[in-house]
Amino acid sequence: MIADDLPLFTLLKGRLGHLNQRQRLIGQNVANADTPGYAARDLKGFTFADALRAKGGSDGVTTARTNAAHLQGAAPKANGPHSVWSSKLTPDSETTLDGNSVVLEEQMIKMAESRADYDAAVSFYQKSMNLIRMAARRPGG
Questions:
Q1: What pLDDT is recorded for position 111?
Q2: Signed CA dihedral, 104, 108, 113, 117: sign only
Q3: What is the pLDDT of residue 11?
Q4: How confident is the model at residue 110 (pLDDT cuts 50, 70, 90)?
């Protein structure tokens, strides 16, 4: 059994990938801060519902009726293709005369938030691995 088989690590891996992609997009925004007509972009937030939807395919996660006494669940509605990491235009607080909507201060705030989220996810991953290592050790060893 490898760590990627555990749902917790699969979600953490997805979260880290999302934060990595967000940092790239923020970097592109900063690089194009002087490009006329450039609109700042950001990623949609990474939520648990999105992760479940991605795991279950376009239909999402479905319920299984394992006992006749259980209530029958309704299948989720298919909303077409769904990407966890799709980008969106961010609302601009300032648009320059040349049509550029990148505000460097906002991008730096987003970058700091993304970095803090990344550090938290890595810390959670490390602590989870330490718990697995502790559980796998021989008692008294």
A1: 94
A2: positive
A3: 85
A4: very high
Report residue 110: phi and psi, to 5°.
-65, -40
- In a domain, residue 55? The reply is no
Alpha-carbon span 127 to 123, nearest angstrom:
6
Both tokens of 140, joined, read 């008294």
CA 9 to chain centre: 13
Range of the domain at 19: 3-46+85-136
Beta bridge partners of 23: none
Task: Please enumerate, as own/partner, the contacts of 3-9 that have beta carbons within 8 Å and a separation of 24 or more.
Answer: 3/129, 3/132, 8/128, 9/125, 9/128
Q: Residue 73 pLDDT > 60, yes or no?
A: no
Residue 67 belongs to a domain: no
Q: How far apart (Å, rounded) are the C-alpha atoms in residues 91 and 58?
A: 28
Rounded distance, CA 86 to CA 50, Å? Answer: 11
Looking at the structure of the chain, the number of domains it has is 1
90-118 mean pLDDT: 86
Q: Estimate the share of the chain in helix, then strand, then coil, as percent rounded to the nearest 5.
A: 50, 5, 45
> Rounded to an integer, what distance in angstroms lies between the CA atom of residue 8 and that of residue 48?
11
